[in-house]
Amino acid sequence: MHIGLVILPTDPWREARRQWEWADEAGFVTAWTYDHIRWGGMPEGPWYSAVPVLAAAATVTGRIRLGTLVATPNFRHPVTLAREAITLDDVSEGRLDLGLGPGSEGFDATALGQEPWSRAERLARFDRFLEVLKPIVDGAPATRTSVRTPHYTAQEAPSTPGTVQRPLPLTIAAGGPKGIRLAVEYGRNWVTIGPTWAAKGPNGQVERTPETVLEAVRRQVSELRSACAAAGRSTSDIGKVLLWMPAEPLIESADHFDHLFGPYDELGFDQVVLHHPAQTGPFGGDVGVFEQIAARHARV
Fold first, then answer.
1. Percent share of the chain, pLDDT over 70
2. 2-296: CATH topology
3. Which of 54, 57, 124, 163 has a CA positioned 20 to 30 A from the CA of residue 22?
């Protein structure tokens, strides 16, 4: 099981550059950034745009894979995002993992002046979003994509000059059965954070502890197996990624990490994604410990 890292787009590039370079050198397999207009974890804090940050990161790294975790239909259109993905894959020389999800409530859901969509509508729109985006990023250079759906239209959208990676790997975020079906249909990888809105406790918040996360993920893996069986796809054919959201407990050592995430290894997860321990934002930890974890789980 390998280790990825989220680097929040919170810091000026003169500081953020060192964070991306460190991730590349330390042995993390992926480095992701969140794609929001404003993030609920820092609603009044600094926040830069994901695509330019990833383009800059691609120019100062040479090994680590880079990606959005995740871009959503809340303020993205599949045609323009596909064009940006083709460009990022070129700038990174084939190191892009495009992370996509249906989005959620929050500022992004209304930033363009729209009324917030229901959960059901977000999933319906996400399905159509993927239907439009995937043939553009997967198309040969001469391909032109024309698709009309109830929510999105592509009219002669070009794939030129094509992606470096064929096909471009999509990482699909999903926590419930409908989203997991989309991950199986469209994704190279599936990413989960464990409990979703359905796991809210009596205070109206998602109860997110190591125990509730593991319980939810076990249920989701079972749903993934069912979706793969229905689609005629092997579960071993889809990468499994855990985005670790709890701020507590802080990971104290490489041994502590192995104890905490051993059950996910047994469930067949390929990657755990942690948050950079030393940048602007709510997440913490010891840089030296993270280096030890990355080195222990470095890709051979």
1. 96
2. TIM Barrel (3.20.20)
3. 163
| Structural domain spans, the chain | 2-296
> Which residues fall within 8 angstroms of residue 247, CB to CB, at 6 or more apart?
282, 283, 284
Interacting residues of 68 by C-beta distance below 8 A, sequence separation 6+: 32, 33, 34, 35, 50, 51, 54, 98, 99, 100
Closest residue by Cα to residue 241 from 168, 166, 174: 174
- pLDDT, one tens digit per residue, over 138-153 is 999 999 999 999 999 9
> Any idea what DSSP says for residue 73?
T
The neighbour count for residue 211, using CB atoms within 10 Å, is 9
Q: Distance between CA atoms of 187 and 207, rounded to whole angstroms?
A: 28
In tens, the pLDDT along 268-286 reads 999 999 999 999 999 999 9
